[in-house]
Design brief:
- The protein is an alpha+beta fold and 728 residues long.
- It has a domain at 1-65 and 188-273.
- 61% of the residues lie in helices and 10% in strands.
- The protein has helices spanning 22-55, 60-65, 74-86, 105-124, 126-142, 198-205, 207-212, 296-299, 301-320, 333-337, 352-357, 360-364, 370-395, 412-422, 424-451, 454-461, 472-479, 482-485, 493-496, 501-528, 533-544, 554-570, 577-727, and strands at residues 93-96, 145-150, 153-157, 160-165, 168-171, 176-178, 189-196, 216-217, 237-246, 251-256, 259-267, 282-283, 325-327, 365-367, 488-491.
- Helix 21 (533-544) packs antiparallel against helix 22.
- Mean pLDDT is 77; it is low at 1-8, 60-67 and 399-422.
Amino acid sequence: MAIIENAQGGNIESRKDFDKDPKGQFEYYAEELKASMSMLDKWHKTADKINNKYTGKATSEQGKAGTAGFKLNLFHSNITTLESMLYGNLPTIDVARRHADPSDDIARVAGATLERLLNLDVQDNGAEVDSVFRATLQDRLLAGLGCARVRYDADIQNDELIDESAPVEYYHWGDVLWSWARSWSEVRWVAFRSYLTKDEIAERFGTLPAEKIPLKQQKMTTSDDAKSDAETDGAWKKGEIWEIWDKIEKKVVWVAFGYEKTLEEQADPLRLSGFFPTPPFLLANPTTQLYIPTPDYKLAEDLYNEIDKLQERISIITEAMKVVGVYDASNAEIQTMLNHGMDNKLIPVSNWALFGEKQGLKGQIDWMPIGDIVAALDKLRELRSEAISLLQQVTGMSDVMRGGLDSPYEANGQSQLKAKFGSVRIQALQDQFARFATDLFQLKAEIIAKHFSPETIARKSNMAYSQDRELLPQAIQLIKNPQESQLRVQIRPESVAMVDYAQLKQERTEYINALSTFMQSAAPLMDKDPNAKPFLLELLQWGLAGFKGASEIEGTIDRAIEASQQEAKQGGGKPDPAQIAAQMAMQQEQLKQQGESAKIQAKAQADMKLREQDHVMDLQLAQQSHQMKLEQINADMQRSITEMRIKLQADLLVEQAQTQSNIASTQATMEGEMQKDAFEAEISMATESEKTFNKIAEIQASAEAKIRESRVAVKEQAAKTDGDDDDS
């Protein structure tokens, strides 16, 4: 809805500021529509995302974030289950008198006539009615709002009324707007959007509006901001026409953005008591702050996202669980071992000595630690189970409501009690849906009463061939006066839900039992005084009026009362009122005491039987639980012993391998140290030899020098001696 970008709240101060002409009224309603679009825009976008979640279609945000992987769509499963539980059959409509007076035959016939009309429409248009209810219920469970309305159609040819009908129509949640309000009673106007082609606009409103109203393709989403999609967009370009039901002014106005005048105005065409042609919306989680839905999905959105996140991680880790590893590239024989067709074959190793020095396969191959991955996968699955369990509690979709038991040893009484209290939320939704259907057909009944002709009512109800045909004219006259008739349309919740044949059988059994008990007690009194028969039958009718389905045979009881009255008149004499009153009081007291006694006895027997069953089942459950615990303890002990044995063997192998590795390392270290010492000794000996040689050479040189010096000194002494001799 691109119009909302220009919307500004609080623009209207007084309705008198707008002229009464078509242009001024368009300006007023345009402001109202823009304000409503702005109010509902956030919810509309949320509802579109929820529909994508239901269908498994990834949103644009998920695509950008790269999170549109494997999803566990529990939301679709939960909604499908709810739809099946809440709606499984076309509604069965009951029309009852406001006050079940036994002598008001005209009101009874009027109720039967209107009931036939409504049920006949459901039967003749079953596919249409079924689609309306299914679509409305799905909108309530997904987007949070379901809407349907009633229309009056009259087929007139040559000024002659041919046929009349009051069809029900479904409206998509995105095609409905309403005024700001805190509750339905404060809603001032409701608007319905229709899409018409250019030719349809010209036929309905004229050629000028058809030329000026902008046309565009219908989109699957409610927001105009969404990109065009050739796969989902409509082929026809159509104009948007808003039909506004103004409760304050009691009129209906048609407008379209782009045409600056109202298209048409009508003064209260249906004259309904509540004015609006739609019942209160099938609204999810309403509050008194603002009359706007809060979808059920929003209350559990974090859990749904958490489950998707866990499931995506589980799928990624599952994909990563492979037998892979790394190996020494110099030994190509290792890769050959994992090829197909290598069973019971030996693979030659080119250099066995080197292969052994590298500790064989253990030293040349390393596998990815699958054990750690399996542990992480098990933890993720545990977290996912916890999240799913929490989701079922938040949404009310527990195993009890699906008809399952938490334990196969659970007692029958315990399971029934859990189912009774576990389905309270489902029963509330069922009641809400049945109330919406009741209100919708109440509007349909009101249209029939105010607009259908007496001939149409008589013809479609086929009451002219019933046993009450003599009262039909007066009954139709009563129907045509709804304020006086006050006929009440009712749709029981169980009539639209999946049929519970056990409950239906129980209701009819209770009815037959009550009827037989009364007849057995009343027979002696009627034999003693036949004049008491009409009064006893009236008492029977009053007592059975509280049973479901009793309205179907009220006519039979009425005829029995009338026949007994005629019989009493023909027999002559009127019964003594005091005697009859005393007899009825005594009979009523007897019935009451018998009923209380039977009730107490039945309750005691049922409680005793239930306690016995629960006791037996509890004993069996305790025995089974004890046996399971013993088996579990034995299995845990065996598993612990096996794990300890495997761990000890593995530790021993590791210790042996470590010892061998340490011995080899020590030998290598000692050899290296010995080689190092020998080398250092050789170097030291060479160094010492060189030092000794140099010392010897130094001593020899010193000695030679001293000898030379001695020789020189001897020569000098000899020369001096020779000189002295010459002087003398």
